[in-house]
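[job 4417] fold queue: 2 targets
>>> target A
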Amino acid sequence: MLQAIGLTSTPRRNAPPAVDDLTFEAPPGRVTALLGAPGAGKTAALRLMLELDSGRGVAYFRGRPLHRIAHPAREVGVLLGDVPGHPSRTVRGQLRMLCAAAGTPVTRADEMLEVVGLAGLGDQRLGTLSVGMDRRLGLASALLGDPHTLVLDDPAEGLSPRENSWLHGLLRAHAAQGGTVLYATADPKEAARTADHVVTLDAGRLVADQDVTDFARTRLRPRVAVRTPHAARLAAVVSREARAAQRSVEVVPEANGRVTVYGSTCAEIGDTAFRHGLPVHQLADEIGDTGPAAPPPAGPEAHRPAADLSELPPIRARPARGPLRPLRYELRRSLGVRTTTLIMAAVLLASAALSVLLARTGGTPLPRALAAWPEVLPLPPAALGAGILGALSFGDEFRYPALAAGRGTVPRRIGLLLAKLTVTAGFALLLAALAVVCGAQCLRLFYGPELITVPANAVALGASWAGLTVGCAWAGLLAAGVFRVTGAGIAAVLAVPVLVVPLVQKVFAAPSTRSVTGLPGRLRELAWWQLPQEADRWVLAVARMVAQPVGAALALSLSALVCAYLFTSLRGKVRW
């Protein structure tokens, strides 16, 4: 059962709240429609229930608020608007990525494609889906975790009658299995036709909470809408004449000079207004009323004071939770689009061409030729490509927040960050190795095998090369995560050689009177465990690498970005 108690949104600039003290229940085994005209507060109510907006009140899903549920995707399936996802990702790839986020087996994706009728469209790109197929994919995403409750915001918008019938058949089948279904709609006929229970809103307040039979009998009837500057006088005249003629006519005065009349016609109301000299600005037949304002309670309830909003528990907008399987999620996110492959292919082509050109003159050392790093470039193509991949790992996700439908940004949990660091480091190392291998093979092809020789310090050079590419990838990732813009990540990567390295070189330009030669021994004295003797040269190698201007610049940049990332996360009150 879904219970909403005292939901009240936070008003903006002296405006009335979009949702005002809303209380209702959506029972299990039934389809509940949240009905209201556009602007009545339906979407705001759903967002309050899902803790997407701040306010007061509480929503219980089988007795627990959403933030108390360990795995929300397995309890509540949500569809708010379109499915967020990269337009180039396939339907199957999107669902498999969300399976990793929800912690469900990957086979669940194909099962849901069968359920929603998209089994033959698994390789279709998200950017090519029609409105109907997008709604089907949204339902598949909501059902991935096999939830008990479905919360949908106007799921039938833009659908054809056939697709609409299929949609509500699926919702009714979910309810028939004991699940709870709540969907918002502005069409009273649709609510009467497809729901078992109708909750009607007007201006954010509860108008009626009815069984669908009572709703169809009391709200879904023909009416006459009249607008006049003398609304109260017209209402009194029509009521008096109806009593005199012993006719069953209901007159409901509304705001802004509007009167709604049930049980009469436009001709009769127009004749009455003409006989009494009342001007009429609007006179129209309508069908499908969402209901007048709720009448005041009678009896003892009329003397009970209104609820104090300060007594209701606050609803805090909470960030989306991270994926339950972050490493698997990040791999599927990165490999689900062709951007990663295209960037790596472009980097390898540029590296091979530069290697051949640099070795042609013979004035470039072999390590630089293999790395394709001429003096005029601030970074080699492999390091720049690794930085771009790192920036895209956060930048793309902010544009298409697959984990945070309706929440605006992806979660900044430590598990997701570690997964991103691991995956981008893997791509960077792969890119660095492939760039060197491609460069060596091109040099062997163009100039013969005698040019390729293994230098004596090959291990140290390889470690420096790996550190450069991984550092650039992490700098792009962290900068994009802090500023939520892909361009900021790429700018941070380029700032290391262009801005930070010159500053570091000024520091290292002063003559050194100290040496780190005894560093391993001093570390061994401080540590409670004994470092192996073979570790001495590795410690010295790392120290020398960091002492280089580029290494020091990367270390400083990464330290600053990590601090900025943690600061912005804590400032946003993210729950780790």
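>>> target B
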Amino acid sequence: MRHLLSTTAALAVALSLASPASAQSLAGDYLAGRQAAMDSDFAAAARYLTQALAADPGNAELMGDAIAAQLAMGRVERALPIARLMEEQGHRSQIAHLVVIADLLAREDYATFLARDVEAQGIGPLVDGLLEAWALIGAGNRPAALATFDALAEERGLQGFSMYHKAMALASVGDFEAAEAVFAGDGTGPLQETRRGAMARAEILSQLGRNEDALAAIEQAFGASRDPELRILVDALEAGDTVPFTHITSARDGAAEVFYSVAGALRSEAGADYTLLYGRVARHLRPDHVDALLLNAELLDSLGQYELANAAYKQMSTDHPAYHAAELGRASALRQSGKPDAAIEVLEQLAKRYPNLSIVHSTLGDVLRQQDRFDEAIPAYDRAIALTDEAARGTWFLHYARAICHERNKDWPKAEADFRKALELNPGQPQVLNYLGYSMVEMQINLDEALSMIEQAVAASPDSGYIVDSLGWVLYRLGRYDEAVEHMERAVELMPVDPVVNDHLGDVYWAVGRTREAEFQWMRALSFVDEENPGDAQPDRIRRKLEVGLDVVLDEEGAEPLRVADDDA
């Protein structure tokens, strides 16, 4: 009982409690905290779960949930007392062990870390093994550290991780020859390089006086791409400077790299909320780990936590070479949080600061286009295209996006030129084929070519509702109503709540004499229209069709009447 009381008191201090909560409050806080955690609202989850834990300090499940919420917020110092208590009470909890280990490594207490029972208080085989090796480096036992890396490499699927960290460990202690031998794959084959790995290797080669080899390695890894961070490195190498090795300079940096590289691997395997925990630890161990900052912000963005993502991006120093990447991410978070004007302001300032960076101008063009500000988007795309090598993989999209702006501005000659340029750069691209073909259908020009284009697009993307709709619509425009029915019905199956597609199916049904079904589809289309932002839908026209029928509407518009195609004519 005495131990239980002391444990409760310790937790109370850790949680800064003023008074115990009631059972009713406990249930409410617990449920609110769990719901907030499910919604990835980490701030609310941390608050409610910590309050619930105050009323039930011995609840291991609550402890683990509270630790996770605090860690997701990046508050290792708040998670630590709870994590320590869990270990003192003998609970096996990966999240608790993660936080305690993060604290030991942050304090560079390698002796205590190495004395832990990894079987009972570990995180997982890969992380535990890599951290042990780095702790041995920190403790000054390099031979044992290298042996640990080598032993870990024998485990199935772990060779790439362990050899990467072995190379970084060797470089961190100044053995650049041995580090390069690992990167080159002497005896095991070359490492598959990440961006960080490629840049680290370039620094290692420069330390060996091999700047030309470093430049060749960068060319192989990145091609012609040169963002500001890469540009600085390349310029220094080309100038003949000896570039310092900056990626990992201590065992603590190495431990941070473990959590960052594991987070990078988890990103495609696990949920973003779980991956974020590793990214947060990487930043706790190494606050200047810019790639971890960007990763965490991107994860928060993907979880819909736009305010937290925005705050994370703003932590980037304005004079860091990766500042543009953080600002691009911040603009995305602002746009997705419903603040497009703020996003545009960020991008406009960024375009002034980086006038020769294509991605800044293309991103600005994209956001302006999404806000229907086509006149302003076109110059942004002009600049992006001027800065982009025509042979670059994404150049077709710049022409495609600018074509859409010209088309929406009713400048068809320029739009068509850009659409056709996009197809020249990326033949058979279904989005371009569909948009160009559909536009020609709407203008009643080149209908046979339009049909051929859309048929190609459907063949390439048979499950795209927009593209299947286009095929049905061009057949309708050609008077081939019976053929159009099947495709329009398929389009509605693929996009059952799209007002434009349902409206089109109604027109096709009317054309083949299925008037009741046509009226039903038009009513469905109206039910899906956002009256404040109808987009391409035409609610007033749909209402008029319901009143008088499609034939009368076409006559009122001065359009050609419905007429079935006569192939024998």
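[job 4417] complete. Note on B: Residues 1-23 have pLDDT under 50 and may be disordered.
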